[in-house]
Amino acid sequence: MEYLPSQTRYEKINYVRCGRSGLKLPQISLGLWHNFGGVDTIQNSRKMLHRAFDLGITHFDLANNYGPPPGSAETTFGQILKKDFSTYRDELIISTKAGWDMWAGPYGNFGSRKYLIASLDQSLKRMGLEYVDIFYHHRPDTETPIEETMSALDQIVRSGKALYVGISQYSAEQTNRAAEILKELGTPCLIHQPRYSMMDRWIENGLTKVLSEKGIGCIVFSPLEQGLLTDKYLNGIPSDSRAGKKGTFLRRESITADKVMKIKKLNELAVNRGQSLAQMSIAWVLNNPVVTTALIGSSKVEQIDDAVNALNNLTFTNEELKTIDEIILI
Description:
Blueprint: E1 15-17, E2 24-26, E3 28-31, H1 42-54, E4 59-61, H2 72-85, E5 93-98, H3 113-127, E6 132-137, H4 146-158, E7 162-168, H5 172-185, E8 189-193, H6 207-214, E9 217-221, H7 257-272, H8 277-286, E10 293-296, H9 301-309, H10 318-328
Parallel strand pairs: 3-4, 3-10, 4-5, 5-6, 6-7, 7-8, 8-9, 9-10
Antiparallel strand pairs: 1-2
């Protein structure tokens, strides 16, 4: 059956200026880190992408090694893009990354010009695209001169293979240096993708200040701590959860009694706000003025609806913010 997107798809989500660029991103973006790989059901992946776009989520975020197996998320996305979204390409922001282990040998990892350009070429083939909207260096590489990595990003934009470039998980100092180099080259750093949640606040120790000063956008990943900041683990570890499955980054032993206690207290606060814990967690990261968009993952359509409904209540009282801090810092 032919996919026809909702006619009201731009009425639900606000679109926020990304740093000091001309690009706007939806407040919620969809990441394809999990549940879009070769081991997953393509019908479910297709349904999630349809629902996301119907709700106004225009930004789909990938990486060369997303799967499993590595590369398969881009292949799946490319198949769905060709079948359902080719007419709407100019309404989409598609991003991918390179920086982690992708293929054997010394040229399939880290931040060399050789790796980044070869990786993007492979990603474009898997997705059936001529260009991506955003290409990221996925992590800092202390062994490759940062000048080489940034020069490669500049070359990628000038070649027409990406419209914008960004970085991920760079420290405040590294981000400042990367931004300076890219500015000198004439290809500004559009965006930074750091991990950020109520339980992981490392970006507040200098990075947010740099992003604000440099006019760099911020898309935060794992705002739900891979599902930990939801009601999923209040009464044990479900077999279909990330912690209940093999091959995910959230391990069963990470669900400690102390964390469950904190989750239960946060859940009580969320209920009092008229939200699910997941919704409150997304609202909390968006409450930071530096954050442009929250990057969510999903295993089912209902989770995307739940995330977008977080936008119905983004305001926190000072007392609520204080209570969250007290719970987390116990």
